[in-house]
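#structure-requests
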Amino acid sequence: MTVNLKSLENPTHIAADSKTASTTKRTSYVPSQHRRILCIFPKYSRSFGTFHHAYPLMGNVRAFMPPQGILIVAAYLPKEWEVRFIDENVKSATRADYQWCDVVIVSGMHIQKPQINQINELAHRAGKITVVGGPSVSGCPEYYPEFDILHLGELGDASDRIIEYLDQNLERPQAQIRFETKERLPLTEFPTPAYHLLNINDYFLANVQFSSGCPYRCEFCDIPELYGNSPRMKTPEQVVAELDAMRQSGNLGAVYFVDDNFVGDRRAAMKLLPHLIDWQKRNGYPIQFACEATLNLAQSPKLLEMMREAYFCTIFCGIETPEPDALHAISKDQNLSMPILKAIQVLNSYGMEVVSGIIIGLDTDTPETADRILEFIRASQIPMLTINLLHALPRTPLWRRLEAEGRLVFDESRESNVEFLMPYEQVVEMWRRCITTAYEPEFLYQRFAYNIEHTYPNRIEVPNSPARTSGANIRKGLTYLVNILLRVGIFSNYRQTFWKMAKPALKAGNIENLIHVGLVGHHLIKFAQDCAKNEESASFYSQKILTKVRS
């Protein structure tokens, strides 16, 4: 996948084989000392995937999704300890927060490295012991030389040893200590994330994790090496309990399954879906579901029918490129099991809007690649595509290949760490042309219009239940609508294009689609306009973002 639209710091594991997971249920550690733990999730740099341009239209929204990984850690800590959680995408930790705690725990991904290290520095100024875990440190421990304790790998025996260490020690160690997971905690024993420590209304959408791992080995993706090739699952009952816990924390609108591949184990997905359908029916279909899945999901009609009944409305597919030779070169042959455009049409026929990942800068790219991508966008009618420059992540086959070829570039003025086969400036210009053309207002709204006519009507008709027509939902909908009509309909520089869609929608009472297009479209258009002015980076993983953060 080119972009990770999930809670991007889910814990990683070292072992690639699920057989290393424990088969015996652990006994919770009972601490002898009282501790105050401050769990901090660092701020993201602005990017395509943060949807920051939509927040002013949404009232109180401050961040994209709750960070699942560190919320699971917060829930796993001893119940006898006091735990405070701060998502710095919502608000920053204060000096008083650092003074309050005994220990600071941080988690994040590579793109958050500067912010993670800054939190460590602030904690050390306050004399506090620091712990960092999550995918970034698990993949590259050398990124975090100043932290007191490193948690390498997924939740498991390392977590238990760190808890025991913190119970027995409060002084900072003289040298860094590393705890590495050898025995993972099975997902079936994961606690419900500590949603009670946050307000779900602060977020663009909610999220849940059902599985971890992916059976495919795309060259550019680090998921198989960090999470394994054999997907591991929570029980359906766990997922339902998490949905209930999220609803208690706020007014949900949509829930994104942050699984690396929701259908990585199709039999497990088939077992989960009846529980989701039953939950939706019992609660009056209060939410829409979205997920990430491989494009060959289109070959599973029974699974698609169940997903439709569970009210899955959006599917993120890592299409990456419409060029078959390029897909084969990056080990993405699963996208070639049926024609790509046909697969998209099948997913649309079940009411699912497709979101696509697109990568520019592959070794197979030519000067004609931008034209082929834009033609694919026209033919597929996909409204939203995450168009990224190729960036090599550590612990991927791509990284190792480019390292062997001497094609890794560590220059913070560049948009990518890859030495492309085409001239660098030409590749960046191809990216800029693709993203600015794709999100030209008229072109984008044409694709949304196609989906309004040919995709959304294929969804099940959900009831006007008390959950859907609650006072909170009505107030939220009115807030979104008024802000869209004012900020987009009056003050935006594409207001004429907006009203071509909005007037018929208002006349027909099609408010839900108007809000969806207004929110998502506004972010896409504004982001592309920033790209045209060279104010945004060409990759979610760009080293150039790190330069901006430091300055």
